[in-house]
Amino acid sequence: MLRFTLVQFDAIGADMSFMDSKFSKWGEVETAVLSQSLAKRFARVMLAAVLAASFLPVAAFADTGGDSELKGIKGKTDPIFWYEITSYQNLTKRSSYDWSWEKDGETGAITVTETDDPSRVTVTGTEIGSVILKVSGGDLGDETIRIKIRKRTVGLSSSYGHKIYDGTPLTVTGINEDGEGWISADRDRVTYTMTGSQTNAGESDNTFDVEFPSGSEEYFKEHYAITISYSTLNVAQRPVTLTSASGSKEYDGKPLTNHKVTVGEAARGTGWVDGQGATYSFAGSQKIVGSSENAFECIPNEGTNLDNYQINKTYGTLTVTDRSEKYQITLTPNSKSVTYDGTEKSVSGFETLEFQINGQTFYVSGVEASATGTDAGEYPVTKSGQAVVIDSDGNDVTDQFIVNIDDAKLTIVGVDSDKPASNLPHTGDSAALYAMGICGVAIAAGAGALFTFRKRNNYK
Question: Which residue ranges does UniProt annotate as crossing the membrane (predicted)?
């Protein structure tokens, strides 16, 4: 990137400040200023142009008053502190050249040295400041150029570092120097102390401290434009592959589980770091016919941070198949035996609808059984409905069972007929018998005979 700077003839750029910020390098095009001959000075014109993509001097000339030839002093207007010997040449054709210089404000040591070419001199500066270089002689007026000796640019940056988490700190030493750099007398006086470190997975700045000799901080601040940038320390998560086991069985009413996890074969940069690891909590379980994942969660061991790992899980499959031989359940309806008393009798339900198989509890629903009767005799229990078997979790597992229902009956026992009518039940046909018995006694008293009446099967 190029930066263009336009400077008025007598302007002096401001000092660069001491910075602690991200460093960016600019290609900077230098500008030079020409002061036209005093005898022919009518106007001032500044021209700044880019001659190259790096630090190359550009000559700026003043019009000599209409002449086709542009003449003046050529050279950098901002030599670098302490380092450069900058050459200046007067392009005006003089019969003689008298060079001189004077301070422009407070300026340190400046040296002007003539060369074998009378039109050319070199200027060496040892302090930040500004001077005015002048050339005179011959029949031409004086010409001047303002020279600013500026701060040296020093770019300091740390190096980038990357690794896969291994439980140890990531540090990268060494500082990169850019820009114009320290002068040789100062380079060995500056020390760097690395402070950047990254252990856990993540990123941080690779920081460092710049230390100057005690009491010299102001000197470095005044003479150097220092920029600091930090590269990154990156620790990537360590890959770990975990695979839970599979399993299968016929349905037996119990949950199918498999609490085994295989850790992938360790390779460079993979697997648990030595001394670290995890236990596993399983959620995978298959109780009824079908399949499901053998899911699990990792519980880190002491000293293990799971955030440092990229955990790749593969779940096995838990499969329960239909039974080849179904379980048998037999329901027993309730039976009942009662003595005839002329009223309707009934029986219903089952002895139990709850069963235990392999330590598991099952419930049968959807069926009914009942019988009713009034007269003495046996009445078979009638069964109806379709049996449904439910496990303790409410799952319908009917397909794994065969449900049988035993026979049952309601028995009504007849009354003993040798009992006197007065002892027979006075309801239904026995009530009629009792009434007729009384009549029979009355008739027997007049005719000398006793008649009894009874309904078939209800009396013995």
Answer: 431-453
What does the alpha-carbon distance between residue 49 and residue 60 come to, in Å, rounded to a whole number?
Answer: 9
Neighbours of 71 (CB within 10 A): 20
- Domain positions in the chain: 1-150, 154-236, 239-321, 327-413, 415-460
Which tens digit of pLDDT belongs to each residue from 188-239?
999 999 999 999 999 999 999 999 999 999 999 999 999 999 999 999 999 9
Q: Is the pLDDT of residue 56 over 60?
A: no
pLDDT in tens, 382-434: 999 999 999 999 999 999 999 999 999 999 999 876 655 455 555 555 444 44
Sorted by sequence, the CB contacts under 8 Å of residue 20 that are 6+ apart come out as 226, 228
Q: Are 97 and 119 in contact (CB under 8 A)?
A: yes
pLDDT at 124: 82
Range 239-321 classified under CATH 3.10.430: yes
- 239-321 matches 154-236 in CATH topology: yes
Least confident among 127-131, 170-174, 250-254: 127-131
Fold classification of 1-150 is Immunoglobulin-like (2.60.40)
Q: Going edge to edge, which strands form the sheet with 85-90?
A: 73-74, 85-90, 120-125, 110-114
% of the chain at pLDDT higher than 70? 74
Above 70 in pLDDT, residue 176?
yes
| HEC-encoded secondary structure of 40-99 | HCCCCCCCCCCCCCCCCCCCCCECCCCCCCCECEECCCCCECCCCEEEEEECCCCCCCEE
Question: Residue 427 is encoded by which pair of tokens?
Answer: 């309801």
The predicted structure's pLDDT at residue 46:
32
Strands (E), 358-427: 360-373, 377-380, 382-391, 401-405, 409-413
